[in-house]
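Exercise 4. Each item below gives a protein and its sequence. For each, produce the structure-token representation.

Item: Isochorismatase-like domain-containing protein (Verticillium dahliae).
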Amino acid sequence: MKSAHSTPTALVIIDVQQAFKHPTYWGAHRSNPSFENNIAALLSAARAHNEAQAKIDKPQPVLIVHIHHHSTSPGSALHPSAKVPGTDILAIEPMEYVNPLSSEPVLVKYVNSGFIGTDLEARLRAFGAGQLIVTGLTTDHCVNTTVRMAANLQVLGDQGGPDGTGEGVHGIIVADDATATHPRASFDAETVHAVTLASLDGEFAQVRNTKEVIATVFGSR
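Answer:
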């Protein structure tokens, strides 16, 4: 990981939407109870960095991008017409703790990857991103797919591989405790979460925790 003070860094927040409040649709138990606090902490750190950078002559802001899923299946909890049960809140709306600022782009996707049907790749390349932090829901679906595509597309201009030390894997970072998932088939949520992250770490991304990311990427120079 590198400091956002010296390396153009992007933070992507995937599918943190009201639909995931549904009490039964996703399964009885979600992994990572600290997910909300951690993703909020990362977003807060990135915004604080940007506020500080705006006050200097040669700013190096973080590109903060929100990706929202709009399902084309009428029965999906993430269909644009769906509401959070017992409320009038549209399920595609963002969770309160990650409400986008007007300066933060919101991209809408219809499949698992944040790169399909959006201009995410073009935005990252135009920004000159040298580091990409990925967070959100769910670990094994849209986070996993987006991370793998980011590596395969070489969106950071890193030639698609590690730097030889294992610390520069594609310049992509997954904050393991700022992602979460649900049970799949006979596997509990924690197992699905852990196995997905293990399959990404060292080949497609560096998997680190929120405290490490904040300290290294957003810490004082």
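Check: The two ends are 14 Å apart (CA to CA).
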